[in-house]
Each structure stands twice: as structure tokens, then as C-alpha cells.
């Protein structure tokens, strides 16, 4: 029985002979990984670096091989920003013994840093760097959707709990109104009923804002809606020292949208852009540029301003419900806009830097 099994193994090896890769083949594989790789020996000197890592450091590999961490942070051709990141990675992975570390670079990309060391590395330290920006975007989108769904549930619950007592109060005021009329106090009843109706309107607006209704779509050229947006906002813009410029694609781009909802989104972003203008002296002139172009069966609407911009902490929370940087803001405008565009099968994203202005890009499917 054993001999038959051995014969089977021998014949299998002959039919499928094992191939052994030499060291040059392994190095060739590491060279072309999409992750950046650095290998330090037990004395802390860089012995291997692949093409991707050299691109990230923006230096030829020949200038990096043989350097230690101190020499890297003192290298004259490595930017100050990258030197600070190298020191931070060294502190987190070596001193604090963290095998995984995340960082955000100067271009807004997310990177996952992995440090491998120990007995299996024979005293060497392997550092790998991988771009995880796409995964972060998916994670943030899922998180945003969860928060918006929770906001809708809370809003519906609040509306229900407040509307019931308001309805009862309104009914009793109606019953008391003839007695108030006899006392010559009918104006009191009118004021109470008016205020109750106003409270109901506020609840309805809040509920509709946190959970927009299904879009009632109409096919229109997007250019006509944007012209209307400019007409509605240009007078307010002039009062704020801001010029609104419209650069439409010459070819009519037809979309199927709920006109009221998309108008709400556009007006919200344009007014936010006006608020972002930070006048400096009499020569300052705020500019908001609205432009459209076609891209892969979608129309891209960009709204760009030259305001004071936003930092990364603000950008991360920009579409969060109730998050606002304004003293009188509710923090619902952009979260509602996000939901409306999503309900239309589109996307909305924003790019901004402090002192360089902000650009919103809205993508909607063409008819």
C-alpha cells in the first residue's frame, strides 16, 4: 500500500514538476508591486527599496540605498513634509511598537504603513506602504449613509412626538375661540393658531430636509437650470462683493431630475461659497465659477470659489448631519444635498485647501 502511494507521488511530481524561483525573480516581483517596499538591516541601513517607494520619496534609488533613518531625514532632496512623516512612522512603529499605522499625505491620499520585524526577519525590518484612499472613500460613504439613515429615523420620531400635542392644543384653542371672542380676546386665539401652524411648518421642513422625498423627475437641459441659479443669486453676490460666472457646455446636456431638489442643492452650495469669501481690502473680488462638461454619459457640474478654503478636518466632516462652521447654521444643508444627489443616481465630492478656495463637483447621469 505504501509503495503504491510512493509511486503515485513520484508520477505526480514527474507530471507536474516543481519550479523554483531564484532570488532575481523574487526581486523582480517586489520591484513591480503597487506597494512601496523598504528593507532595513539589523543595523538600520537601507538595503533594498523598490520602484514604487522611490517614486513616493521622489528620489532615485541609488541616492537612498545605504542610508539610515537619520540620513533620510537629513537628505537635502527629501521635502520637509516627507521628513516629518518619516520621523512619525519611525516613532510609531519602532518606539511605540505599532505594526500598522495610517497617515494622510500632502496630496490628500491615505496610506497604510506596515512594519514587519522579529525572528522571522532575521533582525531585518520590512516597511511596506500601500495607497488605501479608495477603501477610505468607500468606508466614509458607508458611514455617511448610516448617519443619514439614523438622522431620518430620529427626525420622523421627533416630528411624530411634537405634532401630536400640537394637534391637541390646536383643537382645544378652536373650542375655546367662541369664549375668547365674547371676552374680546379673539386676537389671542389667532396668534396661538398662527404660531402652532408655524411650528408645524418648521417640523415639516426639518423632516423633509433630513429625509428628502422621492424625486419627481422632469427631463430638462441642465444649462437652463444653472442660468436660473445665476439669476437668483447674482444680486446677492454683488451685495457681498462676489461675481458669479457661468461657463456652460455649448451642447445641451439633458438630465432627468427633480428640479426643486436639484435647485435646492445648487443654491445651497452657491450660498456657502458666498459665505466662504473673506474680503481683504478694497481690491478683493470674490469669484464663483459654475461650469459644466460631459464625461462618460454623465454631466459634471463644478462650482468653484476663491474663498478661504477648508482644512482636512473640516473636509472629513463636511457632509455630516448637524456639522457646521457657521454661527447660525443648522448643519443640514450639505447632508441633505448629499442625499438628494445620491437619490438621483449621482455623486458629489469636494476639493479644498486653506487659502486656495473650494470646488464642488456634482455628477448626474445624462438622459
Could you list some keywords that capture this structure?
367 residues, alpha+beta, Heat Shock Protein 90, 3 domains, five-stranded antiparallel beta sheet, 11 helices, 12 strands, phosphoprotein
Short description:
This is histidine kinase. The chain is α+β, with helices and mostly antiparallel strands. Helices cover 49% and strands 21% of the residues.
Topology:
Elements: H1 2-15, H2 23-31, E1 36-40, E2 46-49, H3 51-57, H4 69-73, H5 80-95, E3 100-104, E4 110-116, E5 125-131, H6 133-182, H7 186-210, E6 218-221, H8 222-239, E7 242-247, E8 254-257, H9 259-275, E9 286-295, E10 298-305, H10 312-317, H11 333-343, E11 347-353, E12 357-365
Parallel strand pairs: 7-9
Antiparallel strand pairs: 1-2, 1-5, 3-4, 4-5, 6-8, 9-10, 10-12, 11-12
Please give a structural write-up.
49% of the residues lie in helices and 21% in strands. It starts with a helix and ends with a strand. The protein is built from 11 helices and 12 strands. The longest helix has 50 residues. The chain is an alpha+beta fold and 367 residues long. The chain has 3 domains: 111 residues, Beta-Lactamase; 74 residues; 148 residues, Heat Shock Protein 90.
Question: Any low-confidence stretches, pLDDT <50, length ≥5?
Answer: none
- Report the end-to-end length measured between terminal Cα atoms: 71 Å
Radius of gyration: 31 Å
User: How many strands in all?
Assistant: 12
The main sheet comes to: 5 strands, antiparallel
Strand order of the largest sheet: 2-1-5-4-3
| Element order: H for helix, E for strand | HHEEHHHEEEHHEHEEHEEHHEE
Give the structural class: alpha+beta
- The shape is elongated
Question: Strand percentage, roughly?
Answer: 15-25%
Q: DSSP helix count? A: 11
CATH level-two architecture of the largest domain: 2-Layer Sandwich
Amino acid at each position: 500500500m505504501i509503495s503504491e502511494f510512493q509511486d503515485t507521488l513520484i508520477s505526480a511530481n514527474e507530471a507536474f514538476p516543481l519550479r523554483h524561483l531564484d532570488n532575481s525573480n523574487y526581486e523582480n516581483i517586489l520591484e513591480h508591486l503597487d506597494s512601496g517596499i523598504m528593507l532595513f538591516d539589523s543595523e538600520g541601513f537601507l538595503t533594498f527599496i523598490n520602484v514604487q517607494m522611490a517614486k513616493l520619496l521622489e528620489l532615485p534609488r541609488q541616492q537612498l540605498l545605504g542610508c539610515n533613518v537619520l540620513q533620510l531625514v537629513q537628505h537635502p532632496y527629501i521635502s520637509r513634509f516627507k521628513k516629518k512623516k518619516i520621523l512619525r512612522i519611525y516613532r510609531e512603529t519602532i518606539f511605540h511598537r505599532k505594526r500598522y499605522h495610517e497617515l494622510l499625505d500632502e496630496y490628500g491620499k491615505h496610506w497604510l504603513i506596515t512594519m514587519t520585524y522579529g525572528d522571522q526577519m532575521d533582525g531585518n525590518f520590512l516597511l511596506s506602504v500601500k495607497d488605501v484612499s479608495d477603501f477610505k472613500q468607500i468606508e466614509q460613504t458607508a458611514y455617511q449613509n448610516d448617519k443619514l439613515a439614523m438622522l431620518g429615523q430620529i427626525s420622523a420620531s421627533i416630528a411624530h412626538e411634537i405634532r401630536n400635542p400640537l394637534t391637541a392644543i390646536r383643537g382645544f384653542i378652536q373650542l375655546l375661540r367662541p369664549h375668547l371672542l365674547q371676552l374680546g380676546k379673539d386676537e389671542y386665539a389667532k396668534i396661538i393658531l398662527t404660531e402652532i401652524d408655524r411650528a408645524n411648518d418648521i417640523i415639516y421642513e426639518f423632516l423633509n430636509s433630513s429625509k428628502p422625498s422621492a424625486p419627481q423627475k422632469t427631463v430638462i437641459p441642465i444649462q437652463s437650470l444653472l442660468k436660473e441659479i445665476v439669476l437668483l443669486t447674482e444680486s446677492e453676490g454683488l451685495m457681498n462683493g462676489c461675481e458669479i460666472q457661468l461657463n456652460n457646455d455649448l451642447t445641451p446636456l439633458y438630465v432627468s431630475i427633480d428640479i426643486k431638489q436639484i435647485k435646492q442643492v445648487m443654491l445651497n452650495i452657491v450660498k456657502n461659497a458666498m459665505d466662504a469669501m473673506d474680503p481683504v481690502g478694497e481690491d478683493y473680488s470674490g469669484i464663483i465659477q459654475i461650469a459644466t462638461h460631459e464625461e462618460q454619459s454623465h454631466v459634471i457640474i463644478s462650482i468653484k470659489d476663491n474663498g478661504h478654503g477648508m482644512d482636512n478636518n473640516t473636509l472629513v466632516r463636511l457632509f455630516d448631519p448637524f456639522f457646521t462652521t457657521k454661527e447660525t447654521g443648522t448643519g443640514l444643508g450639505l447632508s441633505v444635498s448629499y442625499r438628494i444627489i445620491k437619490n438621483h443616481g449621482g455623486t458629489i465630492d469636494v476639493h479644498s485647501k486653506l487659502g486656495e478656495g473650494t470646488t464642488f463637483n456634482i455628477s448626474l447621469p445624462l438622459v
